[in-house]
Amino acid sequence: MASMFDSAKQVYGELGVDVEAAFKRLDQIAVSLHCWQGDDVAGFENSGALDGGIQVTGNYPGRARNAEELRSDIDEVLSLIPGKKRLNLHALYAEPGKEKVSRDEIRPEHFANWIAWAKKNNVGLDFNPSFFSHPMMKDGFTLSSPDAEVRKFWIRHGIACRKIAEAFGRELGDTCITNFWVPDGYKDIPFDRLAPRERLRDSLDEIFAVEIDQNCNRDAVESKLFGIGAESCTVGSHEFYMGYAARNKKLLCLDAGHFHPTEVISDKLTSCLMFVDEVLLHVSRGVRWDSDHVVIMNEELKAIAEEVIRHNYDKRVHIGLDYFDASINRIMAWTIGARNMSKALLMALVEPAKQLRDAENSGDFSTRLALMEEIKTLPFAPIWNEYCERHNVPVGTAWIEEVKRYEKSVLAKRA
Ligand SMILES: C[C@H](O)[C@H](O)[C@@H](O)C(=O)CO
Ligand SMILES: [Mn+2]
């Protein structure tokens, strides 16, 4: 008797889809897992409460309290997700040991444990300077602050981070993508929107003037519409960074939660990629004021994956995750979003692309719509399950039980 996978493969085959080729292509597309879901964006520095206009709500037990716990949780998450993965670190996650190191003086050796972990797990590392949760963020401003001393501090931080990222790339033989998100903004309506933007541009120019080996690190810049406490004007807006990235040959980071609620980043990819070489995605889910809910299998996630696959952006679009939820088991939160990302990519990879394109190109929009609707009920689950099985990760809902076991044996023991 044919297995469910064999039958499903045949159904897709009849539509001209090569499932084995889809598996092979998915194996090459990395998803960068954000380290900050495990500890509510706290980091190990203890320099203050989370700010920068982001907030983590919830108090589910089991938060990682130190680097060992965080790495153990990430190991658990990685064991539940099929396919190629990377890890995305924030500067907040430095481990300077007993030494107290100022954020503008962090160095690669403060990430030695992360590099060793990455080597052991055969994953690439990505990086982010942390322009928040620090006393040198003055009145909500860092790189665009009117205070030159404040700007200088954060410029040094940006440069230090690029050197760390370069070391990641060199040590791992895998290019690091460093993302610059700068939360600076005004709660109320500013008179002058130009001066802070000029200061941000100049600060970024200084940071990027330092030469870094492009094979080891490339830089991305991330815009935002608003943050909590920065509702009226965010200095690093979309237009600011679209222009900055295009002019300065940087990657543009599109965060799915950083736009107006009816705007979608899936529709921006083809436009942006005509004018910038590469894009970094922060796959997230905005819900009202929050830009960082756990990623679910909604229309937008599917559309993001479809855009990447349909236009062969595999090498030009870097996929990172960015969400945090402390109201549910954090390992579950991580895994739900990460599995969904891979699943959405696989769904896009088994689209009957030729048929859809032919229908569209011949002006047969009724067949295009009919096909798009029929695709929704094709036997996709056996295809996904087979992919998980081949990657030795739990199939179907089995991963939920595994997280429950981890919760009982590990998370519950954390005070
Ligand atoms: C930790 C932050 O979420 C992240 O660095 C940034 O990418 C962001 O999206 C802020 O809203
Ligand atoms: Mn983001």
TrEMBL record:
It is an enzyme of class 5 (isomerase). Binds 1 Mn(2+) ion per subunit. Belongs to the rhamnose isomerase family. This is L-rhamnose isomerase. It is found in: Cytoplasm. It comes from the Bacteria. Its cofactor is Mn(2+). Coiled coil: none annotated. GO terms for cellular component: cytoplasm. Pathway: Carbohydrate degradation; L-rhamnose degradation; glycerone phosphate from L-rhamnose: step 1/3. Keywords: Cytoplasm, Isomerase, Manganese, Metal-binding, Rhamnose metabolism. HAMAP family: RhaA. It catalyses: L-rhamnopyranose = L-rhamnulose. SUPFAM superfamilies: Xylose isomerase-like. It holds the Pfam family RhaA. Transmembrane segments: none annotated. Its EC number is 5.3.1.14. Catalyzes the interconversion of L-rhamnose and L-rhamnulose. Mn(2+) binds at residues 258, 290, 292. GO terms for molecular function: L-rhamnose isomerase activity; manganese ion binding. InterPro entries: L-rhamnose_isomerase, Rhamnose_isomerase, Xyl_isomerase-like_sf. One of its GO terms (biological process) is L-lyxose metabolic process.
